[in-house]
């Protein structure tokens, strides 16, 4: 333990002093605020446990307690008191002192001890009810570092804080959420996104959610390939590869398990055997790379709120049912059926699409969201009006929405299926269907002269041939 204690005094109110304690542990620093009564309570606990001499704490002064000289003297006395305590317990700090200095929030030993004790009391219940368990990167980092040290799993003599409680819990945990911080943690200078942690201690996870971390700090993801069913990672990566194939950092030429390759490879990467849901929304992903070869069973894929400008490699996902590509940078989507297959739900909201020619053969599509794009021409609807299963269509917040009678003109292009289509979240009304029938009749009238001309033309040729 390398903690160093320094005390500053801040007086926000004339009636009492608040002592601000600066704690340094290696490269990590944090502050703790306490009043004298907190020092007194700490000392009472330590004295009751016969850890310290009862007369060690500087006594409380009443007269002239706010004078500058007394304040300065009290500062030095309390600082000396804490330094003596830290020196007295260099290896195993008592729990009351550890909590007083917020070691349970910021220091490796204190963090793991607090987590172990919490799981000692609640771990079995949490596993039985199957709730999602939340951890911070600092907690995982602390456990990872503790496992790398050649030291006893319980360093303070309290069996409730044994690291074994954590390892037993992580081996059986099924649902995990890891939430980082975007700035310094609490009152410390700790940037959680710089702390590496290892997930290989989790042997039974079926669902994991990671938010506000860096893909560079996440270690042990490959160990989850056998068990994981659902993976959600947000604000944590710039590539799919770093999540699905972290080994690519070491092997430049690799191939997915079970795929024949005509090119030489340096390693074969196992597939994610049970992963059916992958949510990588709210990241900075710029392309759908070849790492998707490893997630063949995925049915639900969410890549919304990224930086995609094209859709590639999704042809490897034969089981896709729901795809969310909303709020990216897509301008065109050509031959979508060759990449998306028999999907039922496609969300393309919030892109820059102005044409729909690439969607004509998505015959299994039931739900299509095209809101907040650049669609201006009603003629583009013809590209999707023949999709036999389409039931929900969202075109809101497109330029075409300002066209007079926009809804009925769109619905009319679906012909006899107009009543089956829910447009922009609103069920088609009887009045709209009546207007659709009128529009269809007008269109037929327009098409009738053209139809006659195509019939009369060959008749003229026949009659002339007979005369000749």
Automatic annotation (TrEMBL):
Source organism (scientific name): Gouania willdenowi
Keyword Cell membrane among UniProt keywords: no
GO annotations of cellular component type: cytoplasm
Pfam families: LRR_4, PX
Keyword set, alphabetical order: Leucine-rich repeat, Repeat
Recorded GO MF terms: phosphatidylinositol binding
This protein's name: PX domain-containing protein
Database matches in PANTHER family: NISCHARIN, NISCHARIN RELATED
Ion transport recorded as keyword: no
Domain PX: 1-108
Gene that specifies this protein: nisch
SMART domains linked to this entry: LRR_SD22, PX
Alphabetized PROSITE patterns for the sequence: LRR, PX
């Amino acid at each position: 333990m390398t903690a160093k204690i320094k005390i500053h005094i801040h007086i926000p109110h004339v009636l009492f002093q608040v002592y601000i304690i600066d704690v340094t542990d290696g490269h990590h620093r944090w502050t703790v605020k306490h009043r004298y009564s907190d020092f007194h309570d700490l000392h009472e606990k330590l004295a009751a446990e016969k850890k310290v001499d009862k007369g060690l704490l500087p006594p409380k002064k009443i007269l002239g307690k706010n004078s500058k000289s007394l304040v300065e003297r009290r500062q030095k006395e309390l600082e000396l008191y804490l330094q003596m305590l830290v020196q007295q317990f260099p290896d195993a700090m008592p729990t009351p002192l550890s909590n007083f200095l917020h070691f349970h929030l910021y220091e490796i030993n204190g963090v793991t001890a607090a987590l172990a004790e919490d799981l000692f009391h609640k771990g079995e219940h949490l596993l039985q009810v199957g709730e999602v368990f939340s951890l911070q990167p600092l907690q995982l980092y602390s456990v990872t570092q503790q496992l790398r040290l050649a030291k006893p799993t319980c360093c303070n003599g309290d069996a409730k804080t044994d690291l074994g409680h954590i390892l037993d819990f992580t081996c059986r945990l099924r649902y995990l959420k890891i939430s980082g911080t975007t700035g310094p943690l609490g009152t410390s200078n700790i940037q959680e996104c710089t702390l590496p942690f290892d997930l290989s201690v989790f042997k039974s996870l079926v669902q994991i959610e990671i938010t506000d971390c860096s893909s560079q700090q996440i270690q042990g993801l490959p160990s989850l390939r056998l068990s994981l069913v659902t993976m959600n990672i947000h604000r944590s990566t710039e590539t799919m590869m770093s999540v699905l194939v972290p080994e690519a950092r070491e092997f430049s030429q690799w191939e997915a398990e079970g795929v024949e390759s005509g090119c030489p490879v340096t390693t074969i990467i196992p597939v994610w055997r049970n992963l059916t849901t992958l949510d990588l929304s709210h990241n900075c992903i710029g392309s759908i790379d070849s790492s998707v070869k490893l997630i063949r069973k995925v049915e639900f894929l969410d890549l919304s709120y990224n930086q995609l400008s094209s859709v590639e490699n999704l042809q490897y996902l034969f089981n896709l049912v729901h795809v969310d590509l909303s709020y990216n940078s897509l301008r065109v989507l050509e031959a979508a059926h060759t990449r998306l297959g028999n999907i039922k739900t496609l969300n393309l909201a919030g892109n820059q699409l102005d044409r729909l020619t690439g969607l004509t053969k998505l015959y299994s599509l039931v739900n299509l969201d095209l809101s907040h794009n650049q669609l201006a021409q009603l003629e583009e609807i013809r590209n999707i009006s023949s999709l036999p299963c389409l039931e929900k269509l969202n075109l809101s917040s497109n330029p075409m929405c300002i066209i007079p009678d926009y809804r009925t003109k769109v619905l009319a292009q679906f012909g006899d299926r107009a009543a089956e289509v829910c447009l922009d979240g609103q069920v088609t009304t009887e009045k709209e269907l009546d207007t659709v029938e009128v529009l269809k009749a007008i269109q037929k009238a327009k098409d009738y002269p053209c139809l006659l001309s195509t019939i009369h033309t060959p008749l003229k040729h026949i009659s002339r041939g007979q005369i000749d």
